[in-house]
Amino acid sequence: MKTNYEPKEKFVERMNILLKDKEDVKKFFETAKTLPKKSIRINTLKITPKELIQRIKKYDWKITQIKDNPEIIRIESQLKPGEIGKTREHILGYYYVQEITSMMPILALQPKPNDIFLDLCASPGSKTTQAAALMENKGTIIANDLSIGRIAILSANLQRLSVTNTIVTRHPGTELFTKLIKLNFKFDKILVDAPCSGEGNCRISPRTFLEWSESLLKGLSRKQKKLIQAGFDLLNKDGEMIYSTCTHAPEENEEVVNHLLENNPNAEILPITNLPIKTREGITEWNNKPLNPSLKNAKRIYHHDNDMEGFFLCKIKKTSEETKKTGENSI
């Protein structure tokens, strides 16, 4: 049974500023009181979409495949609690239960076979295993997380899905960065899926409304700025990074990327053109402060646009090995 918490007045004010249109805001909060549909990602390391769909017909699930991404399936049927995780196909690692918007960062980043890829905040492994599938278990993935409990979950999922190109590490993000810099170890692709306030997950976790505060956003923003800089410093020249969160707060999204751009003249935001769901442009002003105009190329995903969870992502390229601006990177 879902418990609904009323959003705080300040949060409502902020969503009115972000969405602008009253009907849009109304739809946002109405959708927030509903439960999202389940979705799965077919693990192409073990089975083809066609084979998996044939196997799950016995469950009488009504399903929809996402256009141009046959490995992504939304289950339209109302499922029993735990049903999706108890099937033989799930236990065998033929599919991974994953929110569709959570799949967008790896679709945008497109890691290739033989890339060297870093997933900085990897557990429980949804995006790591998705990257491994796109890389066809070739190249190298370093999947990092901090908590030993989360590392255990990550390792179990890698094993269940037969991922063999991944090294699991346990470090704070900035500490791992320091170790790798000393080794002069760089990456072709990096994902910084940063810990955040989770505003985009209010449908599955309505306590988000209860726990939300502007002081929480500011504290997270400071940590996120350190993480994004750490990730960027580990990129090869012409390497690409996705910075993503499951929140809508500009302090955790555009302002974090803007901080990176201000301190790294060799950072460039790239357009993202291959996502199969509705997205909106990033914002270029917040609290009367102008942000870098290229932030319009970032992507905002709102739950009422797709009947999915909320998300933010931005694709960044390192154009040269130019050193960041000195004295301007304080957080």
Protein model, in words:
This protein is of the alpha/beta class and 331 residues long. The protein has a domain at 102-318: Rossmann fold (3-Layer(aba) Sandwich), CATH 3.40.50. It is 34% helix and 22% strand. It contains twelve helices and 15 strands. Strands 5, 6, 7, 8, 9, 10, 11, 14 and 15 form a nine-stranded mixed β-sheet that branches. The protein has a four-stranded antiparallel β-sheet with strand order 2-3-1-4, with no helix packed on it. Helix 10 crosses helix 11 (254-263). The protein is globular. The model is unreliable at 326-331 (pLDDT under 50).
Could you list some keywords that capture this structure?
single chain, about 325 residues, alpha/beta, Rossmann fold, 9-stranded mixed β-sheet, 4-stranded antiparallel β-sheet, disordered C terminus
How many helix segments?
A: 12
Largest sheet: 9 strands, mixed
| Order of secondary-structure elements | HHEHEEHEHEHEHEHEHHEHEEEEEHE
**End-to-end CA span:** 41 Å
The chain-level structural class is: alpha/beta
Low-confidence stretches: 326-331
Architecture of the domain at 102-318, according to CATH?
3-Layer(aba) Sandwich
Residue-averaged pLDDT: 94
In short:
By secondary structure, the protein is of the alpha/beta class. It has helices at residues 9-19, 22-32, 49-56, 88-91, 104-109, 126-134, 148-160, 173-182, 207-211, 214-233, 254-263, 303-306; strands spanning 38-42, 63-66, 69-75, 95-97, 116-119, 140-145, 166-170, 187-193, 235-245, 267-270, 280-281, 285-286, 289-290, 299-301, 311-318.
